Amino acid sequence: MNDKEQFQKKLRSLMELDGKMTEERVRQHFQGIELSDGQLSMIMGYVSEQKKETVLTEEEEEYLREYQEMLESVKQVSEGEKLELLKQAAAGNALAREELTGCYLGEVVRSARKLHREGIFIGDLIQEGNIGLTIALGSLKSQDGADEFIQSCIEREMRRLLLETENKNVGDHKMIVRVKALEESISKLEKELGRKVYLEEIAYDMGISEEEVRSILKLTGEMPDEEISENENIDM
């Protein structure tokens, strides 16, 4: 397992811990991985954001109403029948696994409500939870501890989506910051020099490579994809 995979695994397991999250507790959880102050701050911010209660949108409320109505039509089984189905499923019975799916769909909804975060449609969480449920039932080896195992698989897939979305949001935010810094650099240089500025001048002012400047400019739509001369003016 590489450092990135180890970090992500630690972050996922951190989100499953209960109680107040302190810097000391985070450092202890990430024991074996040296965290910079910046990384610690990012993790604390992430945990705070992810554990914050969110309000469902009208669209999400309507989705849940329709989904709950669908669940009412699913056949319900007694606790004894459920245990027998778990035993059969653990033995490889595909029909038992199919019947068990209906038993746990309500748990998927409850987990989705618990883990729901602003910016992620709750239906997407439910879909990921259903995938986790399918994986759990397909790999079930024993009825002992089955509920905990299935629940962990459901929430694992939901947390994976949450983490992927967070990583994307962090990347998008960083790029927005860099574009803003680029625009400020160009504006400042044009005022100081009284003319359009060159690629190499922007790179020097920002303390980054010319290739990085090109990449940011392409995102703004101000530079064509084809290569440009180092001495060509940048017009924004």
Automatic annotation (TrEMBL):
Domain (RNA polymerase sigma-70 region): residue spans on this chain: 183-220
Superkingdom to which the source organism belongs: Bacteria
Protein name: RNA polymerase sigma-70 region 3 domain-containing protein
Organism: Ruminococcus gauvreauii
